[in-house]
Amino acid sequence: MYDGDLQADVQAALGTSELIPLITGGQKLVFTTELEGIPVVAKVILVPEGPHADEVLERARREVELLSTVESEFVVRVLSEAVEIGDRPEAVCWVEEFLDGDDLRNLVGTFPWEPSEVWSLLRDVGAGLAACHELDVVHRDLSPGNVRRRADGRFVVMDPGFARHLTKAALTGVYQPGTPGYMTPEHVPGGRPTPASDVFGLGILAFQALTGAGPMPYRGDEAEYYRQLRNGQAPPVASVRADVPADLASVVDRCLQRQPARRYLDAQELLESLPSASDS
Amino acid sequence: MSVLIQDGRRGGHLRWVTQALAAGLADGVIISPFHTPRVSIPRHQAGATVSAAVIAAGGEAVFDASTHARLLPGSDDVLHYDTWQLWGPSGIGLDSDAKRLEHLERVFARQREMSVPTLAPTLTLESPLGQAADDAFRTAELARGLDPACWQTLAGRRSFWRAGSDLDAYIGQLASLRAPCWALTVVNDIVVDNVPDLADTEAFSGLLRTVHSLSQRARVIICHADYAGVPAVAAGASDIGAGWDRGMRFFDPRSFQLTTPGIQIPASYVTQGRLGAVLRRDTGDAIARLGDAFATTLRGGPMPADDTAERSHHLRQLRDLVNAVSGHGVARPGRIGELRNFYERSMADFDSLLTRLPRTTLQESSRMRWVEQPYRALKAYAEAEGLWL
C-alpha cells in the first residue's frame, strides 16, 4: 500500500487542481479535477507488489498509449502521458477528458430502450471501436461500465485497459480479460480476440438495451458460462422482444453469431451496414 | 463455376482437359507443381503453357502451390516440383517469417507469370490450435500483406475439421483476412480405394459449417473432392476439384511420393449419375442386364464405351449434380433440400439394386460410402444450422 499522500502526489505529478474522489476502492481510482481550468478526470492505477506489478504497469501504459493514438469523438480522450508515482513505482496516473452523463452500468434500470436509442448505441460505440480496429487494436472488455452516455446522447467508449494490439499480442500473454455476462466466445480460455469479438460485445449491449436482459447471462457457474459461450447461440432478439424492427434485430443477431466468421468482421463493417441516423 | 479439374500426371492430361472445357464439362483447372513442371519436358507442358491453353479454351486456371502436400512427411516426388523453385535461401517450411516471405514471393511471382490468381500456400493442419495453426495464419496474413486480393488455402486432416468451436474460432481469424476466395482441402491420411470416406460425420459436418461461414463473404472451392464435395456445395461452396484418377478425386498423400506404385487409372469403373457413385464396370454391366432403360437412367446416359467416354460421362454427371444443387442460388435451404432429395432417392435406388444383384456384385458398403455417409454429414450440419427442413 502506498504510504505517501497519494492524492497530493498525483495532483502534483499531473499538475491538476484538487482531486475529488469519484470512484475509489479496488485497483483503479478515479477523481474529478481541473487542468488549467478545464474539468478533467484523473485516473490512478495502484500497482500491486509481487509478480503482477509489471503487467499492471504495462497495461496502464498501454491504455494511455492507445487512447492517445485513437482519434474519435466516440472514444474518451487522454490529455496527459502516463506518470508513475513512487520509486517502485506504486501507482501510475494520467488525465482524461471529463465526460458528463452516465455509464451504461447506471442506466441498466432504464432498459428496455426504444429502437432509435439502440441504433445510436450501435452507431456511436461502433464508431469508437472502428477507430480502435483501424489501429489493429481490440478493446476486449466492452461492458456497461465501459460505455458512457453523455448528456447530449452520444455514447463514448472508455477504459480500453485490456485492449490488445494484434501485432503486440505478447503483452497480454494468455490472460483473457472480460466481464462475466459480457464475454465473447473468444474470451473462453484458449481463445483469441479479434475485432469481431468487440462486435459480439457490442451485440450484447444492444441486446440488453433492447430486451432488458443479456443474451448469455452469467449465472455464477464459470464452467457452464464458458460452455454456453463456446457452444451456444444467443437467442434471436425478436424471440425475446417481438416489436424490435426487423432490420435492427438482424443487425443485433448478426453481431451475436457464435462463429466470428458469421459476424461483422469488425466495427467498420458493422457501421457500413447500419442505416443513417435519419433513416433509423 | 462448378467443376475444376485437378492436375494429373498422365501424358494426355492437357488435351483431355481442354476437350472437357470445350465440351462444357468442366469450368477450369487447378494446376499443381507436383504434376506440371515449370519448364516443359517431353510429354509434359510447362505450367505457363497449360494455363494459357486453359484460358484460351475458356476455362479458369488456378495454380495451387501445394505447399500443404510438399510439407507432408514422405512427400519426395519432387521432379516437377523442384523446377518451380518455390523456396528461398532460408529453406523449406513456413515456420519463420523469412521462410514464409521467401516462399510467398516466389509462389505469387510464378502465379503472375502464368496469369492466374494469386493463391497463398498453407500447411496441413492437425488442429486449429498450436504452432502449426499459428504458422498457417501468419502465412495467410503475410500473403494478404503482399497482395490484399490474394486467394487463400486451408488444408486440414479430419482432426482439424472435427475441432468444433476451436475450428470456428480459427475460421473467424482467417475470415478476418477477407480473402475473396478460399480453397479448402480435406487431407486424407491414406486413400485405399476409389471410394469416398466420409465416415467421420463430425469432421465433415465441421467442414460444411466452415464452408457455410466462409461462403457468406467469399467464393469457396473444395479441392480434391469430386462427389464427396457435393455436400459442401449445398453448404455454399461454388466449385469442387474433381477428375478421373484417384489422385485427382482424393487428396492422397501417396500422389506426392516416389513410392507410389504407378498411376492409378480407374479404367474399369463407370459413373452412375443418379446414384452419385462410381461403381466397377462389372457392376455397371450387371445393372444393364436388369434392363437397358433402367440402367441408362441410373447412369445418366449410355454406357461409356471406353476410358475417354467415361471421363466425359463422369464430369457431365458430376457437373449436372453440382449445378442442380447450386442452381438454388445463395439460399442454403434450397441447396440442402435438393441434395437431400438426391441422396434419399439414391439410397432407395441402392436398396432396390441390393435386392436384385448378388452381393458379390454390389455391397452394402457402396451404398454406405457413396450416399449414406455424405447424407449423414449433410444432415448433421443442416440440423445444427436449423436448415434440415
TrEMBL record, chain A:
Keywords: ATP-binding, Kinase, Nucleotide-binding, Serine/threonine-protein kinase, Transferase. The keyword Ion transport does not apply. Signal peptide: none annotated. CDD domains: STKc_PknB_like. Pfam families: Pkinase. Gene3D superfamilies: Transferase(Phosphotransferase) domain 1. InterPro entries: Kinase-like_dom_sf (IPR011009), NEK_Ser/Thr_kinase (IPR050660), Prot_kinase_dom (IPR000719). It is an enzyme of class 2 (transferase). Its EC number is 2.7.11.1. GO terms for molecular function: ATP binding; protein serine/threonine kinase activity. Residues 16-277 form the Protein kinase domain. The keyword Kinase applies. PANTHER family: SERINE/THREONINE-PROTEIN KINASE NEK (PTHR43671), SERINE_THREONINE-PROTEIN KINASE NEK2 (PTHR43671:SF13). This is non-specific serine/threonine protein kinase. The lineage of its organism: Bacteria, Bacillati, Actinomycetota, Actinomycetes, Geodermatophilales.
From TrEMBL, chain B:
It comes from the Bacteria. This is Uncharacterized protein. It comes from Geodermatophilus ruber.
